[in-house]
Amino acid sequence: MLAINTTDTVREGSIFGQITTMDHEQLVICHDEATGLKALIGIHNTVLGPALGGTRMWPYATEEEAIKDVLRLSRGMTFKNSLAGLHLGGGKAVIIGDPRLKSEAFLRRFGRFVESLGGRYVTAEDVNMKTSDMEYMALETRHVTGLPKSKGGAGDPSPVTAFGVYMGMKAAAKKAFGSDSLQGKKIGVQGVGQVGKYLINYLVKEGAEILITDIFEDKLKEVAAATGATVVDSNLLYDMPMDIYAPCALGATINDQTIDRLTCKVIAGGANNQLENEAKHGKILMEKGIIYAPDFLINAGGVINVGAEYYGEYQEETVFAQTEKIYDTCLSILNASEQQNIPAQQAAIEAAKARIEAIGRLKLPF
Ligand code: NAD
Known about the structure:
The chain contains 13 helices and twelve strands. The chain is of the alpha/beta class. The chain has two domains: 2-77 and 89-151, Leucine Dehydrogenase, chain A, domain 1 (Rossmann fold, 3-Layer(aba) Sandwich), CATH 3.40.50.10860; 158-300 and 327-353, 3-Layer(aba) Sandwich (Rossmann fold). α5 packs parallel to α11. The longest helix has 21 residues, at 63-83. It is globular.
C-alpha cells in the first residue's frame, strides 16, 4: 500500500504544502497523450459561486513553475471576483506547452476536462488564448465564456479591462496628487498588447505624456505613430523619471531588482501578480510612499465582462458602469491602507476576504 507521509501535507513547497498555505479547494491535473495536452486547473474558492478565471498557455520550463503560476493566479481570481462584487469564485487554468501545439482536438479535449468538473470551474481566455480557441472548447463544455461576438459572446474583454485600469489609475492619482486628472502626467506603459493599447487611448485623451516599451518593435512603431507616445528601451523604463508606472505585460515586474529603481508616485497597471513577493514588495512600496493600485482590483473589467456573458445578462452599458465602480473601490482601499498603515495589497485582500466570509456565513443555517 502507498504510504502517505502526513507531515508532507504541510511541507513548504510540496503540492499539499502550497495548497494549504494558499488555501485552495482543488488542483486538477489533466493529461491526454493523443493530443499532447498537459494542463492544470486550480480552484481556489467557490463560496461566492463557480470558480471563474481564464486559461493561460505557456511553455513553462518546469512543472513546479506551472503549479506555482496556477495556484497564484487562481487565488488572485478569488480576490478579484470578490472585490468586483461578482457572484463568482476564483479559479484559473494553465496549459503547459508551446501555443503552436493548439489544435481543434487539443482545445476540445481541454474543454472536456472543464466539463468534467460540472461547473465548479468556468474558463475564458488568458495569455496566448483567443476568443476563437474558446469556440472549440464550447463544443465540449457549457462552462466557457469569452466567446466571439459572432457566436453570441461578448467578444474580447480587453477594452473593458483597460477601462477599469484607467479608473483605478485615476483613483490612485487622486490619492497621490490630490486630483484625478492625468493631464501632463508622465506615464510609463510597459507592454502595448491588448490592454496596454486600449489604456493608452484613454491616457492620450486626457493629455498625459506616454512612454512605451514592448519586446516587439512593430507593435511599438504602430502605437507610437498612432498616439505620439515615446518609445523607451525595455530595460530602462524602471529608471525613467515618471509619475505613474503602468505594468501591462507580464507579472512579477516589481521585484528586488526593480523596486529601488522606481521613482514614480503611482503604480497602476493591468498585468496580473505584479508584486513578485506580495508581502515584502507591498511593504517596500508603502515605505517608499508609492501609491500602489492592487492589480486584481483594477484589472477586473475583463472578468466583469466575461462573467456577465456567462450568466447570460450581457449588456455593454451595464458592464462599463459596473467597471467604473473600480474607481470608488480603489479609493476606499487606498484610504483603508493609509488609515490602518498597511500595504494597499493587504487592505484589498482583507476586503475581498471579508465579503467571502460574510457570504459564507449565510450558508451555515442549511
Ligand atoms: P497581450 O499579450 O496582448 O499583451 C502583452 C504585451 O506585453 C505584448 O505586446 C508583449 O509583447 C508585451 N511584453 C511581454 N514581455 C514584455 C517585456 N518584458 N517588456 C515589455 N513588454 C513585454 O496581453 P494583454 O491581454 O494585453 O494582457 C496584459 C496583461 O494584463 C497580462 O498580464 C494579463 O494577464 C493581464 N490581464 C489581461 C486582461 C484582458 O482582458 N486582456 C484581463 C486581466 C488581466
